[in-house]
Amino acid sequence: MDYALIWAVIIAIAVLAYVILDGFDLGVGILFPSLNDDEKDAAMNSIAPIWDGNETWLVLGGGGLFAVFPLAYSVIMPAVYAPIIAMLIGLIFRGVAFEYRYRTKKGRYLWDWSFAGGSFVATFSQGMILGTLLQGIEVADRQYAGGWFDWLTPFSIFCGIAVTMGYTLLGGCWLLIKTSGSIEAKLFPKCKRLTLMFLAAIGVVSIWLPFISPEIAARWFTFPNAAAFFLIPIISACAAYKLWHSLSAQKALAAYMWTLVIYLMAFAGFAISIFPYMVPRAITLWEAAAPENSLKFLFAGAAFLLPIIIAYSAYSYWVFRGKVRADEGYHE
């Protein structure tokens, strides 16, 4: 068995699960300033029981990278220290705001802005980390050889914008599923505008990416790869049409699911662009992997824990299914 490849798939699934699950609750935070007080309470209650469980996948992805691909971890971390620190600070502000905004009246606006600001900073930082990885990291003698601000480029900034638009759209669709009343009237037209901005941003990133590296361009635009890989933009275009139609028909669940299809296609496109590298165009996943005995030992633990995590997450979503109101929540 190729344990390095298996672990690469596991980490990729963990990252995708994090983007899908924590993406919508970060998006709810970004939308927070556009809501009134009752709508903010309902929005908070819609994610309060599940937001911390969603971040389990971030821990799994980061911890798995450290344990299974230590060389990649040692190269990637110095390259993106600044956006990672910013992301963690944003997540801390969000977590504190969850608890404290219910404990104060006069200062609630401070925690509202902490929740919104922390959500935006965490989201934008994740997009910049993605952009830094896609554009490539300078490596020499199996260690990071770039500068302090290699993560700060026009491409990484635009990736930050694209991820922010995508998370905000996911958050809007989630609120349409979980709430009713004034939020619906406000968010259906807003989600249509967000759809256009998200599609424009991800389209620019997708067109820009092949120009970053001749290797990526060759992978996408040479036969027979091109014939297969161009199914991704075709499926994305069909999903975008269905998403727009669902929002126009005010079908919230369908809109959320079609947004996820676009995310899956984007994730597949990025994976195709960098495979088989853990550090794009520098270190392959087999070069970065820990010794095989370590991979086997960790895989045994993952085989036991992953079904538990999945079952717990599914049970949480099932228990807290249905729409929420502003006057109900776990804090009561």
Automatic annotation (TrEMBL):
<feature type="transmembrane region" description="Helical">
    <location>
        <begin position="109"/>
        <end position="131"/>
    </location>
</feature>
<dbReference type="InterPro" id="IPR003317">
    <property type="entry name" value="Cyt-d_oxidase_su2"/>
</dbReference>
<feature type="transmembrane region" description="Helical">
    <location>
        <begin position="6"/>
        <end position="35"/>
    </location>
</feature>
<feature type="transmembrane region" description="Helical">
    <location>
        <begin position="79"/>
        <end position="97"/>
    </location>
</feature>
<comment type="similarity">
    <text>Belongs to the cytochrome ubiquinol oxidase subunit 2 family.</text>
</comment>
<keyword id="KW-1133">Transmembrane helix</keyword>
<keyword id="KW-1003">Cell membrane</keyword>
<feature type="transmembrane region" description="Helical">
    <location>
        <begin position="196"/>
        <end position="213"/>
    </location>
</feature>
<feature type="transmembrane region" description="Helical">
    <location>
        <begin position="225"/>
        <end position="244"/>
    </location>
</feature>
<dbReference type="Pfam" id="PF02322">
    <property type="entry name" value="Cyt_bd_oxida_II"/>
</dbReference>
<keyword id="KW-0472">Membrane</keyword>
<feature type="transmembrane region" description="Helical">
    <location>
        <begin position="297"/>
        <end position="320"/>
    </location>
</feature>
<feature type="transmembrane region" description="Helical">
    <location>
        <begin position="256"/>
        <end position="277"/>
    </location>
</feature>
<keyword id="KW-0812">Transmembrane</keyword>
<protein>
    <submittedName>
        <fullName>Cytochrome d ubiquinol oxidase subunit II</fullName>
    </submittedName>
</protein>
<feature type="transmembrane region" description="Helical">
    <location>
        <begin position="151"/>
        <end position="176"/>
    </location>
</feature>
